[in-house]
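STRUCTURE REQUEST FORM
Protein name: Cytochrome bc1 complex Rieske iron-sulfur subunit
Source organism: Microbacterium marmarense
Requested output: structure tokens
Priority: standard
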Amino acid sequence: MAHEDDALEHERASWKPSPGLAVAVTDPVQNPGLPPHRTRMTDQDPAAMKRAVRTVYTLFYVSVAASIWAIAAYMLFPIESGRIIDIRHNNLFIGLGIALALLAIGIGAIHWSKAIMSDKEFIEPRHATRGRDVTRAAAIQVFDEANEESGFGRRTVIRNSMIAALVASIAPGIVLFRGLAPFDSPEHPDAGNPVALLSHTMWKEGSRLAHDPTGEPIRAADLTLGSAVHVIPQELAELSHHDGYLEEKAKAIVLLMRLLPDQLIESEERKDWSYNGIVAYSKVCTHVGCPVALYEQQTHHLLCPCHQSQFDVTDEAKVIFGPAARALPQLPITVDDEGYLIATSDFNEPVGPSFWERH
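Status: completed
Returned output:
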């Protein structure tokens, strides 16, 4: 091994490049430095700086005004009135107020950083981060320099207007939670009791099943095998929006399906709830109330598009997958003397989400 090492060292020492071989020697990459600094108009002209400052805090105050307008719109166009025009105006003007509030904050913050904050380029050397006193003092110095460059502590009008805009922008969202609170009144005596509200719908004995939204009654003979029809009580089609059409429809919507009679698995108490293989179930999902309207004809499964709960139509709409806690309420049906499908009663349990069962 010693002789081999000596031979390698001798070979290295005696090696010389061939006459035609060029050996490139490169220097380390040179630092190109920073480009020339371009001075902004606000840095050259004090009047321009004042205009920029006024623009920024004006935008922040516009944001405050827009947030206040969103709250006012919630009160001026109450959705509790039930009028469709109020609901549309409520959504439109609250949305415009919140959008303008957030847009003004964004534009103001960008203009502040572009026109007022220091824009001088600098190189920050990288160094090891350690939790020593010197490091902590350096961190404090960085915050102090950032405060000085941004003018956050010095330009109190901009700072205070921005804080006011941010605080005000949250207010409309907080106010909108008012719509979730119960509002008992002579017109809505059960508004604070979800069980009472969801226990009764417009379905009653003798109510004809009608197409949604036309209100045209449905004959059992007209339903083909495998069909799925969106259904409402015929009386509901006669209601106006002012009379609570939307509220009643939200509870009474039904999906009507026709299967082969021998495909249905029915308990003894529900033997007469279907008619010749025709079954009707509430469309309101028992999870959070989304409309269950996706029907798989081959598997006879109903699918909720919101959170993928699945219900078996052949087995009393029991839950077979997903977060729903209970089966869809079934509407008992039969036919009248003219062959039209009718309800024999209302649902025998509250429709919609199962939160009302919690104690």
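Reviewer notes: DSSP finds eight helices and ten strands in the chain. The radius of gyration is 36 Å.
Form closed.
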